[in-house]
Input
Amino acid sequence: MKTVAQILKTKQNQAVYTISPADKVLDAVKMMADKSVGALLVTEQEKIVGIVTERDYARKMILMGRSSTDTFVRDIMTSSVMYVRPDDTNEQCMALMTENRLRHLPILDDGKLIGIISIGDLVKDIISEQQFIIQQLEHYIMGRPQPE
Output
């Protein structure tokens, strides 16, 4: 079972995108679109104060008829942000995400933000692990030497 730190190392884009709670929602949506991400961490002076996601936008802006040019990120962000540590496992992350209906988890190491992991990152890792196990079992069953 891989740790969050190991999964983070395999991500092509390890950048963490942040936005201020005082920024407009339109800026957040533009940044998510430009960076091809589904969430931004909301920070003030390098401290996480929330997270804003595409889901927040859909539920708190579009469905309520708000204007993204007149609304601040602080008005739609989720303030209570759950996070994981680098030594947590993919299984622990998956359980946390499933129980709390989350799609993104920041990764903190001694209080310092070092990355963010998505449900897609976890699914990709789990599929990769399963494919490796299947290959190993096929080699064992067929009596073939294992590749090195």
Notes: The chain has one domain: 4-142.
